[in-house]
Amino acid sequence: MAFSQRTTLISHHRTHSREKPYQCCQCDQAFSLTISIIYHMRTHTGEKPYQCRQCEKAFLQNSDLIKHMRIHTREKTCQYNLCDKAFSMNCYLIKHLRTHTGEKTYQCRQCDKAFSLKTYLISHHRTHTRQKPYQCYQCDQAFSQNNSLIKHMRTYTGRNHFNAAYVSRLSQRTVIL
After folding, report:
1. 7 domain-assigned
2. Residue at 154 is within a domain
3. At a CB cut-off of 8 Å and minimum separation 6, what does 142 contact?
4. What's the burial of 50, exposed, middle or buried (CB within 10 Å: 0-12/13-18/19+)?
5. 101 Cβ partners below 8 Å, 6+ apart?
6. How many folded domains does the chain comprise?
7. DSSP string covering 100-160, please?
8. How far is residue 140's CA from residue 176's CA, in Å, rounded to a whole number?
9. Hey, CA dihedral for 143, 158, 156, 172, is it positive or negative?
């Protein structure tokens, strides 16, 4: 392998030596690249310099903004040829592939069940912990599933449709697995 700049060679060498000379002054994390510590420091400062002009959502890295923009442009660069489906992000394609393969990569540590999506495993895990992170803001009832809270909220409003993200923000307590 040949490198045109000495700094690139040094950075490459660190991938093998696992040397991490850039230490965060606010936590114990260390990094091998200067750019990595710059991105990391933004998690402490809350800085998100890359902002979407269409919805004002902001991101730590430009690459995340570029991926996000596909939502607005409806650009679908990840194609699956066997069923002619296309997706805006590779992670969505991977999830879709599991519907064809039946692959269940997320294994429960407390029983023999496995799931194709991490969100399904998290939801299942609550059957073991009896954790109920979705709390009704009208009464003291709590639920293990977001959709159960939405059904419950209909008793107050009579509405059939709720924005699930809104309900989640109103009700969800911290979930620790």
Report:
1. no
2. yes
3. 132, 133, 134, 135, 136
4. middle
5. none
6. 1
7. HH----EE-SSSS-EESSHHHHHHHHHHHH----EE-SSSS-EESSHHHHHHHHHHHH--S
8. 21
9. positive
Query: Hunting for tokens 């392998």 — which residue is that?
Result: 1
Task: Specify the pTM.
Answer: 0.41
**Angle separating helix axes 146-157 and 164-171, nearest 10 degrees:** 100
Residue with tokens 């890359």: 50
How do residues 7-36 score in pLDDT, each as one tens digit?
777 777 777 778 888 899 988 888 888 888
Mean pLDDT check: name the lowest of 47-51, 107-111, 142-146: 142-146
Q: Is 28 exposed, middle or buried (0-12, 13-18, 19+ CB in 10 A)?
A: exposed
- How much of the chain is in helix, strand and coil states, percent to nearest 5? 45, 15, 40
Beta bridge mates, 22: 31
Residue 136 belongs to some domain of the structure: yes
Rg (CA), the chain: 22
Domain that holds residue 147: 106-171
Model confidence at 148, in pLDDT bands (50, 70, 90)? confident
CATH of the domain at 154: 3.30.160.60
